[in-house]
Amino acid sequence: MSEFPKRAGISDILYDEKFRAWVIQFVVIMGTVGLFAWMTSNAIENLAELGITQGFGFLDRTSFYDINQALIEYSSTSTHGRAALVGLLNTLLMACAGIVAATLLGFFVGVARLSSNWLLSKVASFYVETLRNIPLLIQIVLWQSVILTLPSVKNSIDFGGIVYLSNRGTVIPEIEAGEGFVWVLLSFFVGICVCVYNMRRSKKHQLETGEVRSYFWVNVASVTLFPLGVYFLLGSPLDYTLPELSRFNFKGGVTIRTEFVSLWLALSIYTSSFIAENVRGGILAISKGQTEASLALGLTRGQLMRLVIIPQAMRVVITPLTSQYLNLTKNSSLAIAVGYMDLTATLGGITLNQTGQAMECMFLLLLFYLSISLTVSLLMNWFNVKMALVER
Amino acid sequence: MNKVLKLMSAALVLLLSFGFAGAGADTLKEVRDRGAVNCVINTGLTGFAFPNDAGDWEGFDVSFCQAVAAAVLGDKTKVRYVNATGKTRFTLLNSGEGDLLSRNTTWTYSRDADLGLTFAGVNYYDGQGFIAHKSLGLTSAKELDGASICIQTGTTTELNLADFFRTNNISYEPVAIETNEEARVFYEKGRCDAYTTDASGLAATRAVLADPSAHVILDDIISKEPLGPAVREGDERWGDIVRWTLNVMINAEEYGVTKSNAKRMAKGTDNPEVNRMLGSEGELGAMLGLSKDFGLNVVSQVGNYGEVFDKYLAPLGLKRGLNALYKDGGLLYAPPMR
After folding, report:
1. What crossing angle do the helices spanning B236-254 and B305-312 adopt, rounded to 10°?
2. Averaged over B235-248, what is the pLDDT?
3. Residue B22: its chain A contacts at CB < 8 A?
4. Which of residues 353-392 of A touch B (CB under 8 A)?
5. A201 CB contacts (<8 Å, ≥6 apart)?
């Protein structure tokens, strides 16, 4: 039995650690909630006083403006909500294109910087040290002005009448999938399945017998010859329109606009300089003993990289890589500087300005970017778990 | 425990009710206390708002800021300029960063009704036009089918443009740019076939192109753009002060009061309208909480409407046109000062 007094006095409660912690947390939460509630109500109050309409009703209203790059059907008679969606898709397109290019470039430069080739490693060092130290906005504007010095649309650089390059962008033929093209895609997919099956079989065989059996040519054939055969058997179900110069612009074909290219180049090159450093750090984190042991076992340089160094380095690289992907995605909002119609330019730009609903637009913008970033994080975390060292 | 909870919720309610401070803004008093008018102007548009060789802002829109300062504070130099892009101007005005928006802003229904603005009048009747490279051999905007057109974003121009091409059933590629200068570079380098903005802005833009003769301003005017100064909604007196500053400038031109003769005329003329305006008769200034001679200050320090126009806009090659006085066939007609 306890020897303490049975009835707890007020001082006991005050000195109770659990109670204190609870009180502090309550105060902090209430304070935070209160602050936000006050800020919101204050804003609403003041806006109402100024006679500014509030709410998200404007998303259903007609936008009355045009957007030059729309991945979905859009015209000036569509709604503001639709315009925001067009912008969102443009942002995602930029993020995906940028992430792919930045990753490839970054890995190449990172590995090159560690190369024993003096020239290559110095060039890579120079690349990293210059590019990551120049503000992104300046790089975007720089690329933009470089591209603007290309010939005008009338004097486009002609690549065999198929692709044209001018300061308005690159025009490529438009490809349209005809009937039955889905079968070609399907056969390509089957080809990939065959490859995966072959690789597994080969690995199993190697584990069992130690003998290396290569299916390289079979694999190449199954992803190229097989779909090609299906394609011709179905009578080439693919249409294309070549771009043709009309009075002002090219008609037909798809234009990859100057704005897209300059932003894409700047974003991916800038980010790649950071990724290169992550990759270099990741590789250096693997102890030299690993290399020596692998070479002693008779692995080639290529195998050493592919089988020993990279898989282990990846574990170190993925976490900072995620940050770079997030940075790239968020930095894409600088698009407005060059006139690329991303989410910030449509919802946070023209729509905001035409409707005057600054608070609502900014809130939506915040929400969109947050969800994109969280999705990227989630995917990368999943990838991280997959790549983590499995202890046996 | 219950007591603690109650206390906390009481504190929360207190916190929430804090900050519901009613506005009832008195801009005139704020301006007087501050000793300067905060005026939202363009980031740079030749003729309308531009820094001169000494680095001071000058121009048609800037002069209006100075006129308001002269009316309210008796000194046209007591202006603090707030530069705004097409996108930030309304936010700057609404958040109180500026007392007055004088940035070639079109008076439209939705801006008046939905954005919490009050327009004080029209000081420039404009319309949207196109400038194009002469080498294209264009004569009308309707020939622009399939062309790339640069627009400054955040203005009424992109809406007019979309309407124009839709009603004429022709296609175009819009290239939306943030500021006038960047748009000019895009256009000049050939990214766009044409650049569209208000006709006054086109004249200003053409004046600074490398080779003005290589560009042609098309005759088509596709919209009505009445530009004018605006203030925040909710302070009627301040709105009146701005409105009547503009009216003084227009009336002064009508009655032949100029920068140079204003002081002499203020001693008394045989035109009672002029006498009331310049303060030698009646008590018009006091009705708006201003000094008796506010009209005199405006005209003697800044000049009348015609003088300001001739100083800043005529050199760009802009004719008075719609912006002439009603008696000269224009639209400018200010209510009487009585």
Report:
1. 80
2. 95
3. 49
4. 353-356, 358
5. A215
What is the CATH superfamily name and number for domain B27-125+227-323? Periplasmic binding protein-like II (3.40.190.10)
CA distance to partner chain B, nearest, from residue A99 (Å):
25
**Chain A positions in Cβ-Cβ contact with residue B232 (cut-off 8 Å):** 50
Q: What is the pLDDT of residues B116-165, one digit of tens each?
A: 899 999 999 999 999 999 888 888 888 888 899 999 886 778 889 999 99
248-267 in chain A: CB under 8 A from chain B? 248-249, 251, 258-259
Tens-place pLDDT, residues A22-39:
989 999 999 999 999 998
Both A17 and A163 in one domain: the answer is no
pTM, entire model: 0.77
Residue A90 is part of which domain span?
A: 80-173+242-387
For the stretch A54-77, pLDDT in tens is 788 889 999 889 998 888 999 888
How many domains does the structure of chain A reveal?
A: 2
CA distance A361 to B237: 32
> pLDDT by residue (tens digit) across A345-369?
999 888 888 887 878 898 899 999 9
Note whether A44 and A142 are same-domain residues: no
A369 in any annotated domain: yes
Q: For residue A241, give the H/E element and its range.
A: strand A238-241
E strand segments, A28-181: 157-159, 163-166, 169-172, 174-177
Distance separating alpha carbons of residues A123 and A71, to the nearest angstrom: 38
pLDDT, average across residues A89-117: 93
Is the minimum CB–CB distance between A237 and chain B shorter than 8 Å? no
Residues A343 and A251 placed together within one structural domain of the fold: yes
Best to test chain B binding among A39, A61, A66 (most B CBs inside 10 Å): A66
- CB-CB contact of A274 with A132 (8 Å): yes
**Residue from the list A26, A51, A65 with its beta carbon closest to the beta carbon of B158:** A65
pLDDT > 90: what percent of chain B? Answer: 57
- Any idea which residue has 């003088």 for tokens? B307
* Distance (Å, whole) CA B224 – CA B160: 9
Q: Which residues lie closer than 8 Å to A120 by C-beta, 6 or more apart? A: A112
Residues of A within 8 A of B234 (CB-CB) are 49-51
CA distance B64 to chain A (A): 24
- A77 part of contact set with chain B, CB < 8 Å: yes
Residues A112 and A21 reside in one and the same domain = no
Residue whose entry in the numeric block shows the structure tokens 């080809």? A191
Cβ pair B86:A353 closer than 8 A: yes
B12 pLDDT exceeds 70? no
Q: Is A352 in Cβ contact with B116 (below 8 Å)?
A: no
Asked if B177 and A42 come within 8 Å (Cβ–Cβ), the reply is no
Chain B within 8 Å of A168 (Cβ-Cβ)?
A: yes
Cα A372 from Cα A90, distance rounded (Å): 13
Which tokens go with B26?
């008195």
